[in-house]
Amino acid sequence: MRICYHFSMKIVIDTSVWIAALITKDSKSRELLRLVFQAKLSPQMSEALFREYEAVMGRKKIQDSTPLSLTEQNELFEAYLSTCKWNEIYYMWRPNLKDENDNFVVELAVASGAEAIITYNVKDFKNAELVFHHRITTPENFIKEMS
Q: How would you list the strands of the sheet with 135-137, edge to edge?
């Protein structure tokens, strides 16, 4: 299935994808970020997602795994944040996902009208009690659909 977009598609980039972009030099996660920086995709952001990005980025295991210096990580993060559309979450939709900490990602997708949640934890977003019509996909599948 090929998808063509003539506008900047709203997406939510899960923390797993952001961290993979920091750690893995030639990954589909980095390719996804390139599309963001080319204004082909419009990443959506909330306070909860921002806080999770920061917390996970600060973990020693992540710092030891990334080839980027702390300064480079911060510059990349600031550049990425400048492309994000910030959203207020007014309703707590609570789809009751297997991992309670993933609920806020779905809430952001609903609040922002995002068309896709891009994650490496696709299975964690399955079998929700409340079902929304967002595509849940990996960076690899998302990019394949776009090309």
A: 85-86, 41-45, 9-13, 116-118, 135-137
